[in-house]
From TrEMBL:
PROSITE patterns: ABC_TRANSPORTER_2 (PS50893). This is Peptide/nickel transport system ATP-binding protein. GO terms for cellular component: plasma membrane. Residues 9-258 form the ABC transporter domain. Belongs to the ABC transporter superfamily. It is a peripheral membrane protein. The lineage of its organism: Bacteria, Pseudomonadati, Pseudomonadota, Alphaproteobacteria, Rhodobacterales. Gene3D superfamilies: P-loop containing nucleotide triphosphate hydrolases (3.40.50.300). One of its GO terms (molecular function) is ATP hydrolysis activity. It comes from Salipiger aestuarii. One of its GO terms (biological process) is transmembrane transport. Keywords: ATP-binding, Cell membrane, Membrane, Nucleotide-binding, Transport. It is found in: Cell inner membrane.
Amino acid sequence: MTDTMTNLLDIENLRVRFPTRQGHFDAVRGISFSLRRERLGIVGESGSGKSMTGRAILKLIRKPGQITADRMQMGGTNLLTASERQMRQIRGRHASMIMQDPKFSLNPVMSVGQQITEALLAHEKISRRDAKTRAIEMLDAVAIRGPDRVMDLYPHEVSGGMGQRIMIAMMLIPDPEILIADEPTSALDVSVQLQVLEILDKLVTDRGMGLIFISHDLNLVSNFCDRILIMYAGRVVEVCQAGRLHEAQHPYTRGLLNSVPDLEHPRPRLDVLKRDPAWAEAPSVSALT
Ligand SMILES: Nc1ncnc2c1ncn2[C@@H]1O[C@H](COP(=O)(O)OP(=O)(O)OP(=O)(O)O)[C@@H](O)[C@H]1O
């Protein structure tokens, strides 16, 4: 049975800092959370520090950006002291990240089939022929119709939704325990969005993965995730169980909820989100479990 109570990840007092001409800018300002085998949503407006949080977990912040924390533990590994070599292994085997636009992540001069096959060969001791069969099975697993044909296509020949599913297939090759998805569906139209979400959902349920789902769309996240961190100005202002979002207390969360159109209870005008400078100064709410 999958152990659902052990934390896959513990992050305490994480900061991401960028030096600037005027001093420094803290994109993430001391946030704490843990991840179990669950769907954890991170929501907030543009610039609130969601992507930097996701990238910091895999130490993918580009220089001169700096990551500091009191603790960053992924299973048995202390991420704070892990070398770049160890981090590459972690990124390959334990945790993967799906970005918003797959076109930037796929190699433009290799066919889809070649990319998946090469990735499989790099991770497993199998023959090229078996790798090809597995690649077709993987495309099939992420609901790609006619996988044989898709194997021969190049990234520019596939649609956004298909590209995103191919990326998910690639990310699953090492069978990671943690998947970080940064706005994975925001470039897709609604029906394709749902297909990609279904695939991610199945992965958490069937493989017992922990998913960090980053989005600016509170509505989407509340339907899809188990627990939600609401970020504002680099801090976590509120933590909610998705099913209890209607009980959210923080005015920023309430504002995000009220600025979403509701088809069942339409309002003549949506609320404009008002901001209070005090929100940015309040201490970050802990989401450790
Ligand atoms: N290299 C950099 N130097 C200075 N500031 C940076 C740098 N990279 C990012 N930032 C700032 O860090 C803040 C957080 O960025 P981040 O990408 O995490 O936001 P986000 O919540 O994911 O927003 P979005 O939804 O737009 O992606 C932003 O204000 C951004 O301008």
